[in-house]
Write a structure and sequence with these properties.
The chain is α+β, with helices and mostly antiparallel strands. Helices cover about 25% and strands about 20% of the residues. The protein has 16 helices and 25 strands. The strands form six sheets. The chain has an eight-stranded mixed sheet, sandwiched between helices.
Amino acid sequence: MDTWVPNPNARPYIPKKYRHGRQPGSNKRVFSTRKCIVKTFQGGLVVVLLFTVVINIMFIVETSKKLKDPQFRDQRSSNDYDEIAVGRKDKVVEMSMPSSLSIEVTSSKASAFISVDGTTVLQDDEPDRSRGIHIAVLNQATGSVMSRTFFDTYSANEDVAMMKYLDSIRTGRILIFTIKDEGSQSLKTTAREYLSALGSEKIENLGYRDTWCFVTVKGKGKVIGETHAKAPDMSTWAEKVSLQTKLPLVAVKESECPWPDTAENKRRQTFCNKFEGYGPTCSCTSPESISFTLNLLENNNIADVPVVVIASNRPYYLYRMLRTMLSAPGADPKMVTVFIDGYYEEPLAVTTLLGLKGIQHTPLGTKAARISQHYKASLTAIFNLYVDSKYAIVIEEDLDVSPDFFNYFSQTKFLLEEDPTVYCISAWNDQGYNHSCNDPSLLYRVETMPGLGWLLKRKLYKGELESQWPTPEKIWDWDMWLRTNHIRKNRECIIPDISRTYHFGSKGLNMNPYFQDIYFKNHSLLKTPNVKLKDLDKMKRDEYEDLLTNLIKSAKTLDHSKDACSEEFIPRVTDGKFVMYISMNTTTDFVTWKQLAKCYHLWDLDVRGFHKSMWRLFIKGSQVVVVGVPASAYAHLKPAAVKPIYIPEPPKKT
């Protein structure tokens, strides 16, 4: 310390309490001129900010009021953009609203393209997919896209589906058509005349592999824009064609229906202003109801059973299926949950429109694995939502539902409770075509799980299936997996002779119009409700064996010397009972059955609908039992003199 020397330049020490402008011995704060300026500036900024916030709030409120005013929204001028005054008396704000649309359309072998005001609304250039006529529907007041779809009019009956779709579009909507690849092969005269009535001037000359674009307004009957190019020959596609056109928009009020102001119609208006293709639901003159309540079913044993609707991005299918199901006796909207595989807007909007619960989830896996994971997530969720339910009804979005759907499950549910050899009850008969089924009250036991509307037991799912369900990396079909014996464990499913569901979907992962037409179009659907099923107690394992033995013994053996595929092999009689024996060396020897299925126009892609190597069906109105020999447990009932029918596979074409 002796060497310490004070720093003459150091600032004097000021106690902390005096560092903010107070002088010793004074309570007054002393400010410099600079600090006063800063404080004044900061205060001014706060005032300006508050004033700005108030002005913006007032502007938003005024604008909202104006936009809700129909007279304000409907003002138009002759210019492309209308200048509309909005705001307080002392403040005018100008807004711009488009009054026309610019549309560009392209058609070629490899691509279908549509843009509206420079925004692409359709671009399909994926190879070997989406062949046919692509259609986009625009709102005539806003220009928004209300629907996009395509019809493979190269394939049979797709032109009929296209006309049905166009019928469901409201008059006044803007329609845009373009062809990708080929769209004329199955475009019959009726469909061409329909498109001509819409205004097309070139559709009559549309030929094989031609390109074509067409823009019109439904109900106007005149062309807005159209172009067409001919293919030079049958082996070459026409050159790419494009068109650009412009058309005026109409007032919003003109595009809306004047429905009464009810809660139901508000829901309807919101939906119908955004989506198209729903026909009577959005009809301006006679809209069908979109409100459903409990549809009573006498002696209902499934009132507490939830319904799982498996859905994807096929909103028209979902809409059709839900309407038929909710109209069936026993349907309770509160027990229905729609599970959507992906975050798609329109399927959820359909679900909300009809007053149902909808749940979306993130897809897992690809192709068949994605569908499989969708099923698992949906089944797990439904049993978590309904913790006290012992059962669930599972149905897909592409099925029509019989009026007897819930009544059928109500009568058969007890079999799942009382017979451990039954592991599902299905509403579908794989062999139930119009010509091969006949009795609404008749039931079968089969070893192959059909799906397509079925009753599942919680104990089976939670105790066995959930933990073993195929993981996302396995590209397996969930229903084929359920049919494997390590899952089935020699258990069987109960099915009706006449199906209580009908498969109408022609588009999907494993589906196309040709496949639907060949294997599903002619399936039978029971159209009457409240059918009383017979022999319910005889559907249990032991009792069913007695029933079958007595049936085969009482049936007349067909003449096995005749050609089994000939018209005279099965006589046309009333209420006949016949039995035939076919060659079947093992339980997996299906050579003869597959050929027989082809002859009788049954399901022949794989083998379904059998019980212990035996099939039951109706041919020409008579019951026919087909027994495999020696594989079947009923082979011993064959008369000794009867030789089993053998039909070899035809030689493969090189």
